[in-house]
Design goal:
With about 400 residues, the protein is α/β, with parallel strands linked by helices. Helix content is about 20%, strand content about 30%. The chain has nine helices and 32 strands. The strands form five sheets. Strands 12, 13, 15, 16, 18, 19, 21, 23, 25, 28 and 31 form an eleven-stranded parallel β-sheet that branches. Strands 1, 4, 5, 6, 7, 8, 9, 10 and 11 form a nine-stranded mixed β-sheet that branches. Strands 14-17-20-22-24-27-30 form a seven-stranded parallel β-sheet, with no helix packed on it. Strand 4, helix 2 and strand 5 form a beta-alpha-beta unit. The longest helix is centred in the middle third of the chain and has 21 residues. Bound molecules: uridine-diphosphate-N-acetylglucosamine and calcium ion. Uridine-diphosphate-N-acetylglucosamine (UD1) binds next to strand 1, helix 3, strand 10 and helix 7.
Length: about 400
């Protein structure tokens, strides 16, 4: 059976971002933007995923260790999107259908890719594009159709005539090609444009001029097209992605009191009937159980685990720590590298002093412990179950009754 491949273009220098980091490594809701595109390809069962790398390629490759389904292909000189696809030719043996996507378009949805591929295969086309109609087409390649609606080509913003600039149907760079056809056409592309680059969009035009069947389907929702060329677009795309993350959580039974003033990482998991109050920031792999209450003004960082019925209140930061069922930290605490047992009361202003200037140490607090307000827990520390710590205590291992192993 012929296989499917995806080529994700991620070699560019990202001049417009003003950054030393490869553009595709900038994070959208906690993950590099490239990771979102890769996952969309995985979700539709692509057999081989090629990622074209160039600018600071080692940074990109190192961000995906051990992911054996990825093949990184080097584009030595960034000579344009067409050239980036050309360098993949030797890696596509046995693949008949080839998706091409850009690493700077993390909003791409698996359903769009599925529609794109199905339309392409069932139409026996040489190329199929998914297009979108947007309010503000600035910066995108415009879709040129004849008076019958047939696709004629794509013109880049910089090469548009005044009339073409008025076209609102744009190219989000979601393509599907028949393998032999696209490479035949790419071989004919010339860098005859303002940027002197080999454009993939020109290969589409050449296919049409050569009489091959190329179809453009308007299948992309406007909120899916934004790609990231600037910091402004990074913020805009992150906002759309954040809405999707929160929608998913709300659909699974989480209450988010004020979505626009809440930020939740894509990697966070939150259980049913948990309430997230405003100005809460959840970053990293955070796991929250059922029926918890978080915020307002809570900061949950990577490695936080809240079991069921946990309360994290105002101005409380939690990092790499577990709070077991029924534990409460209602006000003004820093809880880092610690475990708090069942029903522990963490009094106002409790701090884990987890760093001694050289190393980080853990704090273990047993079940049903009462930590009075203003407790300073100096790690490494073990507090036995059932112990009561008076307010204002500086707790050190072995020095306070009920501490030490
Ligand atoms: C491209 C399309 C444009 C479309 C837009 C959608 C072309 C010529 N233009 O424009 O029609 O509307 O995407 O987002 O294709 N890259 C490489 N190697 C290169 C050049 C680019 O790998 O030599 C990669 C970049 O890293 C990036 C992607 O290709 O991830 C797109 O390149 P970019 O320069 O952002 O293209 P746009 O100007 O946005
Ligand atoms: Ca782009």
């Amino acid at each position: 059976m012929p296989k499917t491949a995806a080529i994700i273009l991620a070699a560019g220098k990202s001049t417009r971002m003003i950054t030393d980091l490869p553009k595709v490594m900038h994070e959208v809701c906690g993950r590099p933007m490239l990771a979102w595109v890769i996952d969309a390809c995985r979700a539709v069962g692509i057999d081989r995923i090629l990622v074209v790398v160039g600018y600071h390629k080692e940074v990109v490759i190192n961000a995906f260790p051990g992911q054996r389904d990825l093949v990184f292909v080097e584009q030595v000189e960034q000579k344009g999107t067409g050239n980036a696809v050309s360098v993949c030719q030797p890696h596509l043996d046995g693949c008949e259908t080839v998706l091409v996507l850009c690493g700077d378009g993390p909003l791409v949805r698996p359903t769009t890719l599925k529609t794109l591929m199905e339309t392409h295969v069932s139409g026996h086309s040489a190329g199929t594009l998914a297009t979108a109609v947007v309010k503000d087409p600035t910066g995108y390649g415009r879709i040129i159709r004849d008076s019958y609606g047939n696709l004629q080509g794509i013109v880049e913003q910089a090469d548009c005539t005044v009339a073409q600039k008025e076209i609102h149907e744009i190219n989000p760079s979601y393509y599907c090609f028949q393998r032999a056809a696209i490479f035949e056409s790419l071989a004919k592309v010339q860098p005859n444009n303002i940027k002197k680059e080999y454009y993939l969009t020109d290969a589409v035009k050449i296919l049409i001029e050569d009489g091959r069947r190329v179809v453009a389907i308007s299948a992309v929702e406007p909120d899916e097209v934004y790609s990231i060329n600037s910091r402004q677009q990074l913020a805009q795309v992150s906002q759309v992605m954040e809405q999707r993350i929160q929608d998913r959580l709300m659909s699974s039974g989480v209450t988010i009191v004020d979505p626009s003033n809440t930020w939740i990482d894509a990697r966070a998991e939150i259980g049913k009937d948990t309430i997230i109050y405003p100005f809460t920031y959840i970053h990293g792999r955070v796991k929250i159980g059922r029926n918890c209450s978080v915020g307002p003004f809570a900061y949950l960082r990577d490695g936080t685990v809240l079991e069921d019925d946990v309360v994290i209140g105002v101005f409380t930061e939690v990092k790499n720590s577990t709070l077991c069922s029924g534990a409460r930290a209602r006000h003004h605490s820093y809880l880092g590298d610690a475990t708090f047992g069942k029903n522990v009361n963490v009094g106002t202003g409790t701090i884990t002093a987890n760093f001694d200037g050289k190393e980080i140490h853990r704090t273990e607090v047993g079940d049903n412990v009462y930590l009075g307000s203003g407790s300073i827990l100096i790690a490494p520390l073990h507090v036995k179950s059932g112990v009561q710590i008076a307010p204002g205590t500086v707790v050190e291992d072995g020095e306070t009754p009920g501490t030490g192993k």
